[in-house]
Design goal:
The chain is mostly helical. It starts with 7 loop residues before the first helix and ends with a helix.
């Protein structure tokens, strides 16, 4: 058992900064829309920069400690791997399928084990995010290279 403050805020801060940097680089790979505007790049880039800022805030507020608590490292690693896989899945399978796979996986990492809850997350997150970003905000959805559910259900 470690004494003193937990190093978890430092680990989380570093993970957020690294994830934000990686997501920023990935977001810059999203092509501009047909008018040369940032279009679909805007929201992922804003979220990526927010991750960096939140990580820096976490690091700034983290207590200094020499002890390393390792119990959260597997979850942090799982979320980092999931985030990279999610970005790849969006480019390969489209937004809806990728979100339907990633949402329950993220909840699983956070301890949700209910099959009904995970199934609901797959469906509801995909629908809710689709409605907010692509219908209400008018962002054009990133289409999958190999498969896209929007091709099957028609339109976006």
């Amino acid at each position: 058992m470690t004494s003193g403050p937990s190093p978890a805020p430092r680990v989380v801060g570093v993970a957020l900064v690294l994830l934000g940097i990686s997501a920023t680089a990935t977001s810059m790979g999203i092509s501009l829309d047909q008018y040369g505007r940032w279009g679909a790049r805007f929201f992922p880039l804003a979220g990526s920069i927010a991750l960096i800022l939140l990580g820096l805030m976490e690091l700034r507020n983290a207590p200094a400690t020499s002890a390393v608590e390792r119990k959260h490292l597997p979850a942090i690693a799982a979320l980092l791997i999931l985030s990279v896989a999610y970005v790849w899945m969006i480019s390969a399978l489209g937004y809806l399928v990728a979100t339907a796979l990633a949402a329950p996986a993220a909840l699983w990492v956070f301890g949700v084990r209910s099959a009904a809850g995970l199934g609901a997350a797959a469906l509801l997150c995909s629908i809710a995010y689709h409605l907010v970003f692509f219908k209400l905000l008018g962002v054009f959805p990133p289409l999958g290279r190999y498969f896209d559910l929007l091709d099957v259900i028609g339109g976006y």
